[in-house]
Amino acid sequence: MEQLLQHLVAIVVAFADWWAQGFHDIQAMTWNRFLGAFWWLIIFDFPRYVLPDIVMVFYILSRLLFRWPRKVTMDRSFEPSVSVLVPAHNEEASVAKTVRSLLEQDYPIAEIIVVDDGSQDGTWQSLQAFSSDVRVRLVRNQTRGGKASALQTALRLASGEIVVSVDSDSTFDRDAIRWLVQYLRDPEVGGVSGNIKVRNRKSSLATWLQASEYAIAIATGRRVSSYVGWLTVISGAFGAYRRSDLESVGAWDPGIGDDSNITIKVRKRRRKVVFAPEAVCLTDVPERWTVLWRQRRRWDKSGYRNRLRKHVGILNPFVYGARNSTAVAISVFYKMVLLFAFLFWFFYDLLFQERGQIAWVFILTFVIYGIANTLSLLIACALSERHDEWQLLWTAPLMIFYYFWLRFPRAISTVEEIFGFNYEQRFYPDEVWAQAPKW
Question: Is the pLDDT of residue 302 over 70?
C-alpha cells in the first residue's frame, strides 16, 4: 500500500512539474513564439468568432444608447393565410404537444396539416384528440416515405399563402408564428428561419452543452448571418416560406439535410433568407452522446452533399449572384476547410512540439477559448428574452471540449462524402434512397 501511494505521489508531482513548466514558458514567451504557436487562432478563429461578437456588442450598446427601433416591427394587420405542415414519425410522446402549441398561437392559422409517416407506435392514436377540430387535418401514410415525402404530401393539401414547416417534437411561444410572418412583409424575402432553443437542457451534460451551442450559433450566429445576407439554413424545426417560392423550386427533395437543401434552392432564385429572433421554438435535443454523434454525422454529411455536390453551381456568382455565392463559399470554408486545418494544427503541435511548449500552448488555448465562449454566451443571454438563459454561463469552460469533440463526427462525415462512402442513411427507407438522385 505504501509503495502504491509513493507511485501516486510521484505521478502527481510529475504532472504538477509538467504544468509548472508550461506556466514558466507562458511567462517567458515572446511575440514570435506566440504567433508561431497560435497562428490558427489569430488567422482563422479570431475573425470567425471574436469579430462577430464584437460587432454584436456594439450593436447592443448602440441599440441601448440611441434607442434604435427594431428592424422589423409588429404589424397585426398583416395576416396572410398560413398553413402549418407537421411531419411525424414515431412521435407519440410529443406530437400532441406540438399541435396543441400551434392551436394556442395568437395568429389565425388557416390549417394545421399533420402527416403520420408510417409510425409504428401510438402517434396516430395521439392525434385523434384533434380529429374534431376543423383547423387540424390528419393524414396517415401506411408506408414510411421519409420527412421530405411527408412534407410534400402536406404541401399538396395546403391552401395557405405562407407555408410553415415544423418538427413534431417542438413547441412555440404564443406569438412565434406571428413574428415569423412579419418578416415576409418584405416582398423580396422568400424564407424565414425561427429561433430554436433547447427545451430539455437540464436533462444531461450533453443537453446543457447543446443549449449553449444553440444560443451561440443560432440566437447570435444566425442573427449576424442574416444581417450580412449569408444565412444558408432555415431550420427544419421552424421555418416559413412563400408557397409560390416552394412550388417554383419543387419544394423538398428526398434525402438528408432537407433544411439546407430547400434553403439553397430558395436562394438560387435570388430570394432573401432571413432570421426572426423573436419567433421562438423550443425543441428536444439528444440526451445521450451516442445519439448526438449519429445526429451530427447526418447533419454534417448533408452539409457537404448539398453545398458541394447537389448545389455546387451556386458558387458561380455570374449565375446566382455574388451574395449567394459568398454565403455558400463562407459556409463551406468554415465547416470543411477550417475543420481539417484545425486538426492539422492540433495534431502537429501534439506530435512535434516540445513537451514544455505543448503545455503552454494547450493552457493558453484553453484560456483564450474559455474567454471567447464566455463572451459569446454573455452576448447570447443579453439578446435573449428569457432571463433563465443566464444559467448557461457555467458551461463556458466546457464548450472548448464540446466543440473539439464535434469536429470528429464532422471530419468523418466529410471524408465519407468526399470519397463516396456510406451514401445511404437509415434515416430514410431503402426504397426512398433507391429513388433519390445521386451526386
Answer: yes
Q: Where are the alpha helices (DSSP H) in 67-189?
A: 95-103, 123-127, 147-157, 176-182
**Mean pLDDT calculated for residue range 158-172:** 92
Rg, the chain, Cα only: 24
Give the per-residue pLDDT at 131. 86
Alpha carbon 12 to chain centroid, angstroms: 41
The owner of cell 401510438 is: 122
pLDDT tens for each residue of 102-124 = 999 999 999 999 998 888 888 89
Question: Considering the domain boundaries, does residue 203 fall inside one?
Answer: yes
In the structure grid, which three cell numbers stand for residue 148, read together? 421530405
- Find the domain containing 321 and state its range: 82-326
Kindly report the CATH number assigned to the domain that includes residue 97.
3.90.550.10
- How many Å apart are CA 126 and CA 278, to the nearest integer? 30
Question: For residue 358, is it within any domain?
Answer: no
Question: How many CB atoms are located within 10 Å of the residue 418 CB?
Answer: 12
Closest CA to 331 of 349, 310, 308: 308
Specify if 373 maps to a domain. Answer: no
Domain count, the chain: 1
String of DSSP letters for 3-50: HHHHHHHHHHHHHHHHHHHHHHHHHH--HHHHHHH-HHIIIIIIIIII
Q: Give which of 210, 214, 254, 266 is closest to 436, Cα–Cα.
A: 254
Tell whether 264 is covered by a domain.
Answer: yes
